[in-house]
Input
Amino acid sequence: ASLADALKSNKTLTKLNLGYNSIHDAGAASLADALKSNKTLTELNLRGSGIHDTGAASLADALKSNKTLTKLNLCYNDIRDTGAASLADALKFNTTLTELNLHGSGIGDNGAASLADALKSNTTLTRLYLSGNYLGTDGLAGLKRMLESNKNLTVDLFLL
Output
């Protein structure tokens, strides 16, 4: 909470790497609150930080109003389809995020469908990392259809 409080008044920090710390959902909520007023942070790495769908929803809410964050790394968290749907909803409003890393985050076909739907209209995001998730035929088909209409976006998928 102290770090999040400092981010609210921060005037210089542009990149913050908190990867592999025990942020969890409560910490994600505190950071999300700070992102609503922070005007300098452009990159936030929360890789492997114990964030679930509730924490992803808090961050998604902040993305709706944040105007500076361009890169968000949430890989190796357990956000699943519900968290992906929250992030997808935020992408309908956000106009600054260019890179979203959701590698290995437990996302399945429903989460992929939510993201694909949001990204039909979002022209800001240019890179989406979805490898290491549980995407089946339906999820991949939805992403393929979305990519046909959104030529600005690259989706990184690695399927075993």
